[in-house]
Amino acid sequence: MLNKYPMWKNLLVLLIVLLGFIYAIPNLYPDDEAIQVNNEFGLITDADLERATTALEAAQLNFFGANIDENGLLLRFSSVEEQLRGKTALENAFGQNYIIALNLAPTTPSWLQAIGAGKMNLGLDLQGGVHFLMEVDMASAVERRMRDNLSNIRTILREERIRSRGLTLNTSTHLQARFASASDRSKARSSLVTNFPDLQFQNNEQGDFFILDLRLPDEAIIQIQRDTLAANRTTLLNRVDALGVSEPTVQQQGADRIVVELPGVQDPAQAIRILQRIATLEFHLEAGLGASSLSYEVFDYLGQQISVDNDVILQGDRISNVRSSLDQNGLPQVQISLDAQGGNQLNRVTRDNVGRLMDILLIETKSRNIEGLDESGSPVEQVEFYEEKRLISHARINSALGRQFVITGLTTREANDLSLLISSGSLAAPMTIVEQSVIGPSMGQDNLNKGLLGVQVAAFAVILFMIGYYRIFGLAANLALVMNILLIFAIMSSIIPATLTLPGIVGIVLTVGMAVDANVLIFTRVREEIADGSPPQRAIDSGYDRAFTTILDANLTTFLVAMVLFAIGSGPVKGFAITLMIGIITSVFTAVVGTRALVNIIYGGRNVKRLSIGGVSTLSAEQ
C-alpha cells in the first residue's frame, strides 16, 4: 500500500525521537558554582574533606553536595559570591601542594546520568574561561638531551675502562671527548657508535690530544623538537585534568607553540601556576662510600640524609608508561616502562650495580615575581625562575633492569604518589606563556544567549514560512525541524560528546535552513507530480522517491567539505565543522524519514482527493 509505513518502522522513528528528547533534557539544567580541591602529590582523603568542611563552616559559608570522586573533592555553592569567599577560606586551610580551583558542577539528575545522558560541553567563547599560548624552549630540550648523552658517555667509558682526558659540552649540539692516544679514541668510538646512533662522529687532533667530536645532525634535532612538543602536550593534558576542566583544548600551533584553552575555569592565576610548573624526573645512583663531596648532593628522605650521585642515569622523558599495582603477595609496587633507548641506558648501568640503591629526583622549576628595572630604568615586576629538588624514591636494585621494571618496598600511599608524580609530572622542556586572554563567564553567557536567540529566530522564521507556504506538509516539516534540533543536541551532549562553540551555533543555524531545504525539494516535486496529473497518493510517493537522490547528492558533497574543514581546521573551524556534519546526518533523516512518517500518518491509506501543500489550481487531482 502506498504511503503506509509498517508498524515497526513507525515505532523505530518514535523511539529515535524519544531518545533524542531524553538525551537533550540535561541541557535544561543549569550548573552549580563549585570549588574543586586536588592534591598535587596524592589522593584526596576523608581527612581533606573534614578539613574543608571545618574551614567553610568557620567562615560561615553555606555549601552543599560535598563529595570525593576520582576527580578530587567537589563542593557546591549557591552563588558566585559564596564561591569566591569559599576559595579564600580553603586556600588558607590547605597548603601549597593543593589545587583549589573555581569551577562549575552539573546538576543533571542521577537517573539521566545513569543512562549516560549529560549536558553539552560549552566552548571558551560560550562558557568563559582562559586561553594561553605557550612556547616551548626547544634549545633547552636539545641541550638536555646532549647533557644526558654526556652523562651516559662518561658511564660507558668508565665501564669499558677507556681513559679520557676530558668530556665537554661545547654547544647544545656538540660534545667533545679528548684522549691521550689514537687507540683509546678508536676504542671509544667503537663502543659509542652502537649506543648513540643519532650522533655524528668525527676524528680531530688538537695539540697532543686526539679528539672525538660528537654532533647532533639536523634531522635528529628536528625529531627531538617533535618529541618534546608531543611530550609537553601530553603533560599539559594531564595537568589540566587536575583542574577538572570539561573538554579542554590542548593543541599544537606551529613548530614550538601549544594552545591551551580551559572552558569554565574562572581562576586564571591558578591555571597559570599549574601549567607553568616545570618539572623533570632524574634517576641517579646513591653515592658510594668515600666519594668526593663534589660528586654528590645530599637530600632528605623520610628523615634520612641520602647522598645522591651527580651522574644522571636516566631522565623522565624516557618513561613511556607508569602505573601502581599490587605484586603477587598483595604488596604495593610501581610498574615503569621505558622507551628503547631508555631501556638500554638503564640496563647498562644497573647490570653492574646490583645491590646498590637507586634514587629518583623530582626537579621543579618554579616562578616568583620580583621587582626589577626595565630598559629605561623604571621599576617593573619581573618573573624569576628558581629550582627546587626533592627525592621521591630510594630503592634497591635487585637485578639488572630493562625497559620494564618495578619499584617495591613502598606503602600504598607512596606507590600511588610516585605513580601520579611520574605520569603527570615531567615537562620535556620549559614553557613560557607568550599570550594570555580571559573571557569572563558573563561575556560567555551573553554570547550563548545571543547564539541561542539566533537559532530561535531562524527556526521561527522557517516555521512561519513553511506553514504559510506548504500548509499541512509545512507543519510536518516543522515538526521534523524540531526533531532535528533535538537530535543534534542529544548527539552532541551524550552520544558523540562534542564542545559547542559560537561557530558551532552558526553550524546549527545553517543546518536549520538545510533541513527544510530538503523538504522544499520534496514538496516541490510532489506539486509537480500533481500538476502532471498524478493522483495524490502516487504524487506523494513519487515526490519522496525522486527527490531522494538529489537530496543525498547535495548533502553528501556538503558533508565531504565539512570533513575536510574538521581535518585541517583548528579551534572554531572544527566547532563549525562538527556541528555541520552532525546536522547534515540528522537533517537527512528527519527530512526524508521523519516527514514521510508524519505525512503517511496524515494521508496514508486514505482516499485523498486534495492535498494541503500550497497553491490552488494544481492540487485538485483525484486518486
Mean pLDDT across residues: 81
Give the end-to-end Cα distance, rounded to a whole number of Å.
14 Å
CATH domain fold name of the largest domain: Multidrug efflux transporter AcrB transmembrane fold
State the total count of DSSP E strands: 23
Placed side by side, the strands forming the largest sheet appear as 2-3-1-4
Helix content: 40-55%
Q: Please report the number of helical segments.
A: 15
Largest sheet: 4 strands, antiparallel
Described by the principal axes of the CA atoms, the overall outline is: elongated
Secondary structure category: alpha+beta
How big is the Rg?
33 Å
- Give me the CATH architecture of the largest domain, please: Up-down Bundle
What is the CATH class designation of the largest domain? Mainly Alpha
Poorly predicted runs: 616-623
Describe the structure.
This protein has 623 residues and is of the alpha+beta class. It folds into four domains: 7-26 and 441-603, Multidrug efflux transporter AcrB transmembrane fold, CATH 1.20.1640; 32-105, ACT domain (Alpha-Beta Plaits, 2-Layer Sandwich); 139-220, 2-Layer Sandwich (Gyrase A, domain 2), CATH 3.30.1360.100; 276-438, Gyrase A, domain 2 (2-Layer Sandwich), CATH 3.30.1360.200. It contains 15 helices and 23 strands. It has helices at residues 7-24, 46-58, 80-93, 110-114, 124-127, 138-159, 182-195, 218-241, 268-275, 340-350, 412-425, 441-495, 502-531, 536-568, 572-603; strands at residues 32-39, 64-69, 72-77, 98-105, 121-122, 129-136, 167-171, 174-179, 200-206, 209-215, 249-253, 257-263, 278-285, 296-301, 304-309, 314-315, 319-326, 332-338, 357-373, 379-396, 404-407, 431-439, 499-500. Strands 2-3-1-4 form a four-stranded antiparallel sheet. A four-stranded antiparallel sheet has the order 11-12-6-22. β9 (200-206) and β10 form a beta hairpin. α12 crosses α13. The protein is elongated.
